[in-house]
Design goal:
Elements: H1 2-22, H2 44-50, H3 57-74, H4 78-83, H5 93-106, H6 112-123
Helix pairs in contact: 2-5, 3-5, 3-6, 5-6
Length: about 120
């Protein structure tokens, strides 16, 4: 029984050492492994290029980013903000994503965040 406990202790110690060594630096994913960490920082030319073949969650990532932008600017959730704007109910999930894509297609040197800022102005922010 003592040798079993010693083996378990050694295994736990080894895992702690390995864990400390692995977590000692920033995590760097190889290109293509994890998508884009900050969709707002993505260059428009790249965003417009990947959009047609990207996962369906790409538009959702833009919506989440824009939702954070709206909250930072207005202090409101996107639904509450849109409800307080004339014509706000016309801005659907697809229309918001479409606006950012259209902006990026027309402005390849810009970023998705620039597209979100333009959307803010278009909607009435």
């Amino acid at each position: 029984m003592n040798s079993r406990r010693a083996l378990q202790s050694a295994l736990v110690l080894a895992l702690v050492i390995v864990s400390a060594a692995v977590s000692s630096g920033p995590i760097r994913l190889r290109e293509g492994m994890g998508g884009v960490a900050d969709i707002g920082a993505t260059k428009c030319d790249y965003y417009a290029y990947i959009h047609p073949n990207a996962p369906t969650g790409l538009n959702q990532a833009v919506l989440y980013w824009f939702q954070g932008y709206v909250h930072a600017r207005s202090g409101k959730a996107i639904d509450a903000w849109l409800a307080g704007i004339p014509g706000g109910d016309q801005w659907t999930f697809d229309r918001i994503g479409g606006h950012v894509l259209d902006y990026c297609t027309a402005n390849p040197g810009a970023t998705v965040a620039d597209g979100g800022s333009d959307l803010w102005k278009q909607i009435g922010g």
